[in-house]
Amino acid sequence: QRLTTLRSPEKMAEIKCVGVVGAGQMGSGIAQLAATNGLDVWIMDADRDALSRATAAISSSVNRFVSKGLLSKARSLSMLCSCYFPIKFEAGDDAMRRLRLTSNLQDLRSADIIIEAILESEDIKKKLFKELDGIAKSSAILASNTSSISITRLASATQRPTQVIGMHFMNPPPIMKLVEIIRGADTSQETFIATKALAERFGKTTVCSQDYAGFIVNRILMPMINEAFHTLYTGVATKEDIDSGMKHGTNQPMGPLELADLIGLDVCLSIMKVLHQGLGDSKYAPCPLLVQYVDAGRLGRKRGVGVYDYR
Ligand code: CAA
């Protein structure tokens, strides 16, 4: 019955305006990439404090790129001048574009693609996708930055499953080279090509994954992080030695426990639960120590304490 109500696929418009929902670490990083690559951006978050924090994070990150000569000063100055609500870049340079902050989802109606970067909860994301489906242009792509939730199931909340896709950035998005692109069961080739082209415009390398729990990166990375928690939990070694061992022994930029703190322990736990449930193998069961840290509110860097204490 649902199939009869689906809209027929729309012709894709050229992507000029990007909407981002969620102004956390990932959302602000994605908005930064869009703005610094010449696109208009709306970043939406119900929490105005999160929008202010996003502004500060974007300004600081852009300054780091400018100080290395990787971004023009004019563009950076426009970013620096924009620390108020809403942000507006002044015209005067080809590179200048608008980055606007909003707490009203309706403002995303002009976006050609909307990238969702909210909490990792399937129910909350589905509710949002349903709402976005009613607001977004009929030609717009609805993308999710989910780290493991099924794109096919998110698409099922909309009447445009051919235009729903996973666009999974790595943390921190301005720095990390990869974007995983995940095709849902009904994602069209046109949607895939437009999304891949956008990621490449951001200077990213892309890989394409089918829609199975954890996709490529988290399917492999999260069990490693979970195993690092087991190694700590069972007293094999200290957290410092576990991280140092993996960092220097396998040439990783940071150890798995430090990385878990960067990603957020709550995010790691929710991905392990998705892997456990979606792949049905007990080897994916979250380590009790990871569960306990999350229960205790030790969520990682964003809370000032996780495996390590940053306070
Ligand atoms: N914006 C701009 N520049 C930034 C930045 C940001 N947000 N973050 C770091 N940098 C720059 C710094 O200025 C610095 O530049 P220089 O070397 O030129 O001075 C450089 O990046 C290194 O930064 P730091 O010195 O602060 O710290 P670091 O050397 O430890 O690097 C890191 C930080 C880039 C995060 C690095 O540790 C790293 O790559 N860690 C691994 C990150 C990772 O694996 N991410 C993927 C996680 S998995 C994921 O995200 C998927 C998921 O769904 C969970």
From TrEMBL:
InterPro entries: 3-OHacyl-CoA_DH, 3-OHacyl-CoA_DH_CS, 3-OHacyl-CoA_DH_NAD-bd, 3HC_DH_C, 6-PGluconate_DH-like_C_sf, 6PGD_dom2, NAD(P)-bd_dom_sf. The keyword Oxidoreductase applies. The keyword Oxidoreductase applies. It catalyses: a (3S)-3-hydroxyacyl-CoA = a (2E)-enoyl-CoA + H2O; a 4-saturated-(3S)-3-hydroxyacyl-CoA = a (3E)-enoyl-CoA + H2O. It comes from the Eukaryota. Residues 18-211 form the 3-hydroxyacyl-CoA dehydrogenase NAD binding domain. PANTHER family: 3-HYDROXYACYL-COA DEHYDROGENASE FAMILY PROTEIN, 3-HYDROXYBUTYRYL-COA DEHYDROGENASE. Belongs to the 3-hydroxyacyl-CoA dehydrogenase family. In the central section; belongs to the 3-hydroxyacyl-CoA dehydrogenase family. This is 3-hydroxybutyryl-CoA dehydrogenase. The lineage of its organism: Eukaryota, Viridiplantae, Streptophyta, Embryophyta, Tracheophyta.
